[in-house]
Each structure stands twice: as structure tokens, then as C-alpha cells.
Model the fold of this input.
Amino acid sequence: MTPHVHESRIRVRYGDTDQMGFAHHAEYLLWFESARTDLLRELGFRYKDLEKRGILLTVIESHCRHWAPAHYDELIRVRAWSEEIRRLKVRIAYEIVDDASGKRLATGHSVLGSIDREGRPNPLPEDVIAVLSKGLRKPS
Done:
């Protein structure tokens, strides 16, 4: 089975950049979040629907490796895929590339822990694991 990789296109806004004209490092985590949300939606789970079921996914780890800067008004592609799924956590990987050249700008991942409304570990239901596993892609 071909793993599911979601791709979001984002235009770098002026407010996303720093004094050097580079996208500020904090923006990359926001772009990761946007692509992660879209990936889950494509796989059949909107965050708000999971929350209605009492499944809360909280970021317990995040990492970003910057390879080259994104600049104001550039169009970038943010790729996201599920890399690991366990009963209590999901690891989502990301790659950001320049849309025009395909040049890699950043790579990273986030690990989301499944908790209940009281903040206690809450195992993911089998249907959620099954759907997220369809998009599973091992790290390269």
C-alpha cells in the first residue's frame, strides 16, 4: 500500500518573516500544525470530531531541522504523514519544500499524546488507529 502523504500549499506572509526577510523559526511549527490538521481531515478525522468522542491529541514533542530559509511571498509545500502509531501516541513527520524549485527547506516531526478531558492517558480507539495506519510511512 502506498502511504498517504498530505501536501498543503502555503504562501509566506510578510508577518511570518523576521528582520532578515526569512520566515521566523516559530512559523514552521505553525505550518506543521496546519498540515497535520489537514492530513487528519483527509484520513477521515477532524480534530473537533475526535474531541467530541473524548479523544484529545496534545503535542508532547516537536522537532524542526532548518535546511534553508523560506522568504516572504514564496509559495511553500508542507508535506505531512503518519510515521508511527501506538495506543497512546501518534508521530507525524513533515517536510517543507519550496514550491518553485522543490528545494528542501525544513524537516521535522511532532508526537501527539492521546489524553482524556482530565489530562490522563486515553488509548486511541481501534477505528482511529486503523485509519491513521493507512497513512503510515516509515522514516527514510
